[in-house]
Amino acid sequence: MSQETVFNGRYELHRRIARGGMADVFLARDQLLDRPVAVKVLFPEFATDPSFVERFRREAQSAANLNHPNIVSVYDWGQEQGTYFIVMEYIEGRSLADILRAEGPLHPQRAAEVASDIAAALGFAHRNGVVHRDVKPGNVLISPSGQVKVADFGIARALGADPDSNLTQAGSVMGTATYFAPEQAQGLPLDPRSDLYSLGVVLYEMVTGRPPFSGESPVAIAYKHVQEQPAPPRHLNTNVPTDLEAIILKLLSKNPQGRYPSADDLRADLRRFREGQPVFAVAGGAAGSAAAAGATQAMAATQAVRGVEGTSALPISDYPADYSEPRRSGAFLVVLILLLLILGGLLFALAKVISGGGSGGATIDITVPQGGVVGKPEDQATKNLQVAGFDVTPVREKNDTVAEGTVVSVDPPEGTTVKVDQGKRGSVTIHVSSGANTVKMPSVVGQLQDDAINFLKSQGFTSVTPQEAPSDDPNVQTGEVTKQDPPEGADVAKTVPVVLTVSSGKPKVAVPDVAGKSVAEAASILGQQGLDGSKTTTEASDTVPKDQVIRTDPASGTQVDKGSKVTIIVSSGKAQVSVPSVTGLTKAAADNAITNAGLVPQAHCNPGASPQGVVTSQNPAKDTKVDKGSTVSFDVDTSDPTLCS
């Protein structure tokens, strides 16, 4: 694939990062959300096979419905260039298989942590009705920060699905032979305990550096899963604690009933191991060993194999249809029964001694309340258990999916009935969420709103809300993040609400009314509002005295950006007009000329010879600049005094 290849007009493929049995995986960029993604592209030769396409589609559908911190998320799927693709969360890091190849066995505590996270992912899938069926180190990704993610639900199948809808060929099984459960190797129905067996193989490999069984072909390995017992991990690595070895061997029980009932029960035992508490696997070791010793011998070593090591299809048409216990000789059964009777007698005698030889020692049954503990607030669950007759020990632990203060699980589980001496109380441990795991809050201040939101979502933050606010900073552009809450570097859960303050531009202010003020006073008032009143201009005014403010531009009341310039318009006094020349005009003509100039005429009559009379002089003189409305006096020589009345 070239760097220019774009799927669905959105996913730009960069380079191949992995290759599987039926698809390539590419590092790509989601152009819409500007984030890295992984794109799995089905090999073209499989795109014409409806069964492979349906399996590919089902992978997308199964995984897309599994939203969990320890499961690789699936975002999209589609068809492009004659083949099909799935868009997944990109995990920067290495697969567990790469780590084991490069570094060898893990420290037992770290191995238990990784196994616990894998069990969390499987438990969530199982509760949602999905069995993975291909648990192996290559499908476990570990980020640089140590986060564990389970990938590739490519052959996962819904629990309780119609057998006719199974996409594997009749008489075949899908998976990777090295990590097969015995029932998977035989083509028998699978359930969540089959995934736990595969996880046991992975955990075995994590602490010893190699899987429990190897062989020249997949069928040879599968035969050993059904027929042979694994070497105890401590035989290969003496640093493996006995309790962890007991957990591994319980997981590797040939009979599913000898394994943990659920992934949550396995997590509980791993937690006890990590906390230095006794594990249930040791207490059930004798039964587990007996079940393991009774392995099914149903696989013929001479059967043919199609495919090679990896995710393969193994023909099992000649295998028995049911999972059956192995046959043993009569002598073996007699010895076994005698040993069990002797053991039972010893246990009975011990119980008699402990209870004082049978005098007294009455017991009662008490039951962990069904529906009254898990999912309840700690105080409510504690009260329910105390009322039921139990003393409660709380253990707090991080949990990304359960709210802080809520009970995640109880040990023994809800509905369990236990016997206690009359007058005594039972003991239970409740595991309470102490909140989600935390990360350092990244900084998005200075980024544009959409870029900041997309980045935070790509980092796993689920609640990001922008809110607008003006900014005084001239270097901040509109739409830029100026503040974030929580701040950079804070330890937060990825579910915490993140509030981004985004610049809506400079703050707005209303231009104040400074009409009638002096220039200095007006400039001061504007400055107090954050405006620049340094610019002035003059304008004549018939109503506003000279040197007083007439108005501003923009006008008072206008909303403007803080810091804007406002022009102050100052009165230069009344408008000046030129006195017209009226000498030699009749009195009536002089009146008209003076009035038309915006001035007030005032005539003075002198006796003369002309009955009409003409103006002989004027004051002010012609062309003199005077205020509009000023009086212009003039003398008229006339023999008719009524002209000046």
Please give the structural blueprint.
Elements: E1 6-7, E2 11-19, E3 23-30, E4 35-42, H1 44-47, H2 50-64, E5 74-80, E6 83-89, E7 94-95, H3 96-103, H4 108-127, E8 130-131, E9 140-142, E10 148-150, E11 157-158, E12 172-176, H5 182-185, H6 192-208, H7 218-227, H8 233-236, H9 242-251, H10 263-274, H11 280-283, H12 285-293, E13 311-315, H13 330-354, E14 363-367, H14 378-387, E15 390-397, E16 407-411, E17 417-421, E18 426-433, E19 438-440, H15 449-458, E20 464-469, E21 481-485, E22 491-493, E23 498-503, E24 508-510, H16 519-528, E25 536-539, E26 549-553, E27 559-561, E28 567-571, E29 576-578, H17 587-596, E30 600-607, E31 614-619, E32 625-627, E33 631-638
Parallel strand pairs: 15-18, 20-23, 25-28, 30-33
Antiparallel strand pairs: 1-2, 2-3, 3-4, 4-6, 5-6, 7-9, 8-11, 9-10, 12-13, 14-17, 16-18, 19-22, 21-23, 24-27, 26-28, 29-32, 31-33
Helix pairs in contact: 4-6, 4-10, 6-9
What can you tell me about this protein's structure?
The chain folds into seven domains: about 5-90, 2-Layer Sandwich (Phosphorylase Kinase, domain 1); about 95-150 and about 160-315, Transferase(Phosphotransferase), domain 1, CATH 1.10.510; about 330-360; about 365-435, Trypsin Inhibitor V, Chain A, CATH 3.30.10.20; about 440-505, Trypsin Inhibitor V, Chain A; about 510-570, 2-Layer Sandwich (Trypsin Inhibitor V, Chain A), CATH 3.30.10; about 575-645, 2-Layer Sandwich (Trypsin Inhibitor V, Chain A), CATH 3.30.10.20. The strands form twelve sheets. The chain has a six-stranded antiparallel sheet with strand order 1-2-3-4-6-5. Strands 7-9-10 form a three-stranded antiparallel sheet. Strands 15-18-16 form a three-stranded mixed sheet, covered by helices on one side. Residues about 155-175, about 285-330 and about 350-360 have low confidence and may be disordered. By secondary structure, it is of the alpha+beta class. The chain is elongated.
